[in-house]
Amino acid sequence: MWAIDTACGSEANTTWHLVADIERLRELVGVEKWLVFGGSWGSTLALAYAETHAERVSELVLRGIYTVTKAELRWYYQFGVSEMFPDKWERFQAPIPPSERDDMIAAYRKRLTGDDPAAQIEAAKAWSLWEGETITLLPNPAFSTSFGDDHFALAFARLENHYFVNDCWLEDGQLLRNAHRLRGIPGVIVHGRYDMPCPARYAHALHKAWPDAEFHLVEGAGHAWSEPGILDLLLRATDRFGTPV
Description:
Elements (H helix, E strand, L loop, with lengths): L14 H15 L4 E6 L1 H12 L4 E7 L6 H8 L3 H4 L1 H8 L10 H9 L4 H16 L8 H7 L2 H15 L9 H4 L9 E6 L7 H10 L3 E6 L9 H15 L3
Parallel strand pairs: 1-2, 2-3, 3-4
């Protein structure tokens, strides 16, 4: 059972609780090794798991590499993507007074966990739509609809913010620093050239630190798994690893 705190998420909802849960699932399934697949935050979690339990990973397929460094968080929630999407950034800033905009993650935390339900929804929708409308190379109206739903937005924003305000319980640069633990694990890294939430330099750095993995930097693609070039490579990778030799 989750022990819910008053902030929003769970006292037992951290990166390392999830890594332990994945390992428990492997034990329940009864396999010695398995293919681990993750995209975006899933790539963070997959890397954390694989670096902790490398002997249990047969292959690793990663998309939209996110190592959750302070620089990555600043790029997306403080300054960087703001320069690419000034209109959408203006909407993201709207619920936050100018005096608090020097730390947007903390300012959103205050509103997402406050006592005013209307302010919670306003903040949640602004947070959620900022992501939903910047993850594809070309606009996707379906993402605006789904990310803008009140119930989805509140759950999504509160949980994501809960992790980011805590730096995902990772030391800065930890996942890249420990990538040597992946040595010998075959893998595939798929990353969109124009991925806004997750700058391509971190995917490139991961490949340099883990040369056992193929690296595909997909032209004409952003962050979403559903973009054709990204989806094609993910299917090819999982088909290849899933086919008995």
